[in-house]
Amino acid sequence: MVLKSFVDVHPDSHFPIQNLPFGVFRPTETSPARPGVAIGDYVLDLSAVSSAGLFDGPILKDSDCFCQPNLNKFLALGRPAWKEARVTLQKILSSTEPVLRDNVALREKSLFPMSKLEMLLPTAIGDYTDFFSSLHHAKNCGTIFRGPQNPVPLNWFHLPIAYHGRASSIVVSGTDIIRPRGQGHPSGNSPPYFGPTQKLDFELEMAAVVGPGNELGKPIEVNDAAEHIFGLVLMNDWSARDIQAWEYVPLGPFLGKSFGTTISPWIVTLDALEPFACAAPEQDPKPLPYLAEKVSKNYDIALEVHITPSGQKDSSVVTRSNFKNLYWTLTQQLAHHTINGCNLRPGDLLGTGTISGPEPESLGCLLELTWNGQNALSLNGITRKFLEDGDEVTITGVCKGEEYNVGFGTCSGKVAPAPCP
Ligand SMILES: O=C(O)/C=C/C(=O)CC(=O)CC(=O)O
Ligand SMILES: [Ca+2]
Ligand SMILES: [Mg+2]
């Protein structure tokens, strides 16, 4: 028998009782932020559940981790607490358990229609790193930025390459992204220009949310790394390709990326994703021992990007990809990040890098889809090489099971014009 909730959940919903993703919301503009889990079209307020004494397991019974404006304190408690919370929440939301189902007053205090509330960033993000783990993306970007001879650098096959992103400009889905201004360089010996980016792009990504983390100087072993990953969100690493191409030599992405990064509000836990785990690709050459894992795991998460062009009602799908296209696993990324002793802290965000697949329809950004603006895309008859002001980009992700889906909802942002000079 498949577990069912007393809350009505549509069969296509991303949020059945098997998912229970964690987020932070406020019921009204003036009420304080608090953690919640999504169930169907509702959000269950975890501060209310906690105040009612329903978290009665040994770790959570005396904890105030759900009476906080973000999930950091809960994340720091680690997997035993996450499992305990999931067991309690699946129990009190199930169709056969009366404690919440039959308590009208508590239900009114704790269950809110999702359409009427405001979702916030789920964690306070101290640090954000973005990896480069899709071979298809690395090959295509290498060819476009550096030419077809050796598009993938030799180090790529030996370590998960990354750059340090900017945590301060991470925003929750639904926030406008202001077109950045900056320097670009047309070609050859011509002087650089300055102005609003002419090559604004999205990047289809996911990101891991770090749990307990590690002390400075004490790396996390690759086979223990999953204990430090709470779950995943959808992510759009907005990129200004003209700024990026000019500035990145030799230190890597900077202002071409740091003007805004959007994440989805719901963190889907690794526990909820487990039924959709699959083998990660075979790695050749074999990684060094500190990156060699006993079990090399990916997840079968179908990903789509839709663009609604400025002034239009309808969106068009511009790419269909899958999380399982990644070469380096989340656990290898995390172990590599800490191998030099660098400390990760609860709530840190590790982007996977753009998730491009092998087919032309599965490329994860416009840079690849239009080959740096050489070929326009048609969106219901409207053409685009890069994003225009007013365009809205929406990423979705879902694991499709036989009896239920485990999904991420959406991650969207609309492009707002650059500030006047
Ligand atoms: O090939 C490059 O020089 C850089 C490519 C990127 O855009 C970097 C990045 O954000 C990594 C990624 O999303 O995979
Ligand atoms: Ca990126
Ligand atoms: Mg970014």
TrEMBL record:
Associated pathway: Amino-acid degradation; L-phenylalanine degradation; acetoacetate and fumarate from L-phenylalanine: step 6/6
Active-site residues from the entry: H137
InterPro entries associated with the record: Fumarylacetoacetase, Fumarylacetoacetase-like_C, Fumarylacetoacetase_C_sf, Fumarylacetoacetase_N, Fumarylacetoacetase_N_sf
According to its UniProt entry, one GO biological process term is: homogentisate catabolic process
Record: residues binding Mg(2+): D237, K257, T261
Pfam families, per the entry? FAA_hydrolase (PF01557), FAA_hydrolase_N (PF09298)
Keywords of the record: Calcium, Hydrolase, Magnesium, Metal-binding, Phenylalanine catabolism, Tyrosine catabolism
Q: Which residues form the Fumarylacetoacetase-like C-terminal domain?
A: 130-415
> This protein's superkingdom?
Eukaryota
Q: EC number(s)?
A: 3.7.1.2
Q: Where is substrate bound in this sequence?
A: F132, R146, Q244, Y248, T354
Q: What's one GO MF term for it?
A: fumarylacetoacetase activity
Residues reported in the UniProt entry to bind Ca(2+) = D130, E203, E205, D237
Cofactor(s) needed, names only, are: Mg(2+); Ca(2+)
- Reactions the enzyme catalyzes: 4-fumarylacetoacetate + H2O = acetoacetate + fumarate + H(+)
According to the entry, every stretch annotated as the Fumarylacetoacetase N-terminal domain falls at: 18-122
Q: What does this protein do?
A: Converts fumarylacetoacetate to acetoacetate and fumarate. Involved in tyrosine catabolic pathway. Catalyzes the final step in the tyrosine degradation pathway.
Give the family, as the similarity comment puts it: Belongs to the FAH family.
Q: What is this protein called?
A: Fumarylacetoacetase
Organism encoding this protein: Trapa incisa
- Which taxonomic lineage is given here? Eukaryota, Viridiplantae, Streptophyta, Embryophyta, Tracheophyta
